[in-house]
Structure formats: C-alpha cells, structure tokens
UniProtKB/TrEMBL annotation:
Gene3D superfamilies: P-loop containing nucleotide triphosphate hydrolases
PANTHER family: CYTOSOLIC FE-S CLUSTER ASSEMBLY FACTOR NUBP1, NUCLEOTIDE-BINDING PROTEIN NBP35 YEAST -RELATED
Full protein name: NUBP1 factor
UniProt record, GO biological process: iron-sulfur cluster assembly
Cellular component terms (Gene Ontology): cytosol; nucleus
Predominant place of localization: cytoplasm
InterPro entries for the chain: Mrp-like_CS, Mrp/NBP35_ATP-bd, P-loop_NTPase, YlxH/NBP35
Organismal lineage: Eukaryota, Metazoa, Chordata, Craniata, Vertebrata
Keyword vocabulary terms for this entry: 4Fe-4S, ATP-binding, Cytoplasm, Iron, Iron-sulfur, Metal-binding, Nucleotide-binding
Pfam family name, one: ParA
SUPFAM superfamilies noted in UniProt: P-loop containing nucleoside triphosphate hydrolases (SSF52540)
Keyword Magnesium: no
Length: 262
C-alpha cells in the first residue's frame, strides 16, 4: 500500500505510521513500514526509533522492529545524526529505494506500507516501477480540505491513473477541529471548493474517511507513541479505525481476486 499526496505537510507520514500501528494490532499479521522520503525521513521519530541503527546480516539489512510483527526501514537509520541533510540527485535516491526493496530481509509480510515524499517524480516512479511485478494493491491519497491542497492532490490522482496504480481511496486529514473546552467545531482549513468529498465525486474516487484535527496526534508522534493506543476514545481514533478497516477489506478483496485468477 503506497501512501501518496502531491502536497507536503498534509500528514502522509502520520497516516503511514498509524496505519502500520493499526494493522499490526492484529498479532497474526506481519507489517512492514518502508519510508522512502529520503530528504525528510520522519518515520523513525514517529515510531519511537530515533537513534536506532540498521544491522547487516547474512540475509541482508535487518529492519528495526517496533513490535515483533512491525518492522521499519528508513534512510533516517543510516544517518549519523537526525539533523544531517541528505543532498542527493535522483539516481542515488533511486538506488537506495532499490536497495531497500532488494536487500532488506523483511521475511514474510502481509502488509508493506510505503511512506512517500510529496510530488510525482523520481521516488514515486521508482517505487511503482520496482514493485510492478508484485502487483501493488493500491495507493491511499492524503489531502487536507482546502483548495491549495486539493489542486496538488488532483495531480497525484492523475499520476496514479497514468502509471496504472490502483487508488484505494482518499483520506481527508485535518478535517475540522472540535474544541476540547467548548466542544464547538471550527474549520481550520475551510473546504472552500467542497473539500475531498466533492473532489472524490468529480474524479470518481472513494473517500475513505475524514480525520479531525486533534493536538494529541502531534504530541504522540513527537514522543514516538501510537496515538491510537494513547487516545482510544478520540473521534480521530474512531475515524482512523474505520479507514484502516476499509483498507484491510480492500486488500483482502484484492487477494481473493488474485487467487481466483491463479
């Protein structure tokens, strides 16, 4: 499952991290989280793995494990300091992505979640090309409600269609904010053109759900904790759980269809 968005700052890494935590809650499933945001790797921090190193074994690089059934790989583990800048041209980035797919000993995994950088360029083309033989189940596209974000997200949907990448659906992040004191809802990012819902109708794409703003999400990410476990009653957690369930159902349907074809 690729997590995409044409726009930066809409919450792709947060969504990828929480999707991984949500899927790994089922202990019978093996989940892998691959961070290919090479210039801005935030997954190590969000998963509580900052400062961890990658170990080389006879079978390749070993992922860094959060739980027994949740492994993570990121360029962040290869840097000497979290503040180091990665100043690379496209071919070197592509080489590292290929290495992450070829040389990491993930073992048998049920879900591989790929957190991507913003845009529709080198890293996106590389991951789609390298994984084409494995049949990518699809992409989850993350947006925020305002038109400035939707404008770039439409480009990402167009990219998916051009490279024949199935779209699982769109998640509208930061969708409204309920004040914890007065309980009134405010639109921090007003959906001036109808938000993700209208865009999905126009482009014939599924809307997987809307996640409201919750300051606790940012706090949990900074501490490297799972927001789903820390705030189980939050409306944002309920929304995440519904979205994760829909993604699981979609992937199971795809598996059944592939079994029938075989």
């Amino acid at each position: 499952v690729l997590v995409l968005s044409g726009k930066g700052g809409v919450g792709k890494s947060t969504f990828s991290a929480l999707l991984a935590h949500g899927l790994a809650a089922d202990e019978t499933k093996q989940v892998a989280l691959l961070d290919i945001d090479i210039c801005g790797p935030s997954i190590p921090k969000m998963m509580g793995l900052e400062g961890e190193q990658v170990h080389q074994s006879g079978s390749g690089w070993s992922p860094v494990y959060v739980e027994e059934n949740l492994g993570v790989m990121s360029v962040g583990f290869l840097l000497s300091s979290p503040d180091d800048a990665v100043i690379w041209r496209g071919p070197k980035k592509n080489g590292l992505i290929k290495q992450f797919l070829r040389d990491v000993d993930w073992g048998e995994v049920d879900y591989l979640i790929v957190d991507t950088p913003p845009g529709t360029s080198d890293e996106h083309l590389s991951i789609v090309q390298y994984l084409s033989a494995t049949h990518i189940d699809g992409a989850v596209i993350v947006t925020t409600p305002q038109e400035v974000s939707l404008q770039d997200v439409r480009k990402e949907i167009n990219f998916c269609r051009k490279v024949k990448l199935p779209i699982i659906g769109v998640v509208e992040n930061m969708s409204g904010f309920v004040c914890p004191k007065c309980k009134n809802e405010s639109q921090i990012f007003p959906p001036t053109t109808g938000g993700a819902e209208k865009m999905c109708q126009n482009l014939n794409v599924s809307l997987l759900g809307k996640v409201p703003l919750d300051p606790q999400i940012g706090k949990s990410c900074d501490r490297g904790q799972s927001f789903l476990a820390e705030a189980p009653e939050s409306p944002a957690t309920l929304s995440y759980r519904n979205i994760i369930q829909r993604i699981q159902e979609y992937c199971e349907q795809r598996d059944l269809q592939e079994e029938k074809i075989i």
